[in-house]
Amino acid sequence: xxxxxxxxxxxxxxxxxxxxxxxxxxxxxxxxxxxxxxxxxxxxxxxxxxxxxxxxxxxxxxxxxxxxxxxxxxxxxxxxxxxxxxxxxxxxxxxxxxxxxxxxxxxxxxxxxxxxxxxxxxxxxxxxxxxxxxxxxxxxxxxxxxxxxxxxxxxxxxx
Length: 159
Fold this sequence. Notes:
Blueprint: H1 3-28, H2 46-49, H3 53-64, H4 70-76, H5 95-101, H6 106-112, H7 115-118, H8 123-130, H9 135-157
Helix pairs in contact: 3-9, 6-9
């Protein structure tokens, strides 16, 4: 193998390794309240497995914290974490609260999510469900989130 070719392969491998080290370092420095920290590296397979754009976008918004729940709006406005409260339930309005607990979405939750998920809610169940590789379950979660985001925007942002 020519010297230049082996050097370029070595350099490429080093650059890729460096990128992933930097990326993992940044993720580990995220706030402990960020959902993204708890997701598996390979749990983004749904991007190619779910044909519906609205479902994929909704799951991605949930997983990356790219939404308007109080946990994010409070971060933008530099509110303390404990002050990022759901107006309906008076609990911290984060992704876990919206998916598993919030009274406002009970009807949607019963329609799209398995009762075993929210019956006795736990962060462990929530993270496990987000990391699952069952396309049918993720599709239902995506549908649930699509309608949650729609209702949330109607109720909270534009009210």
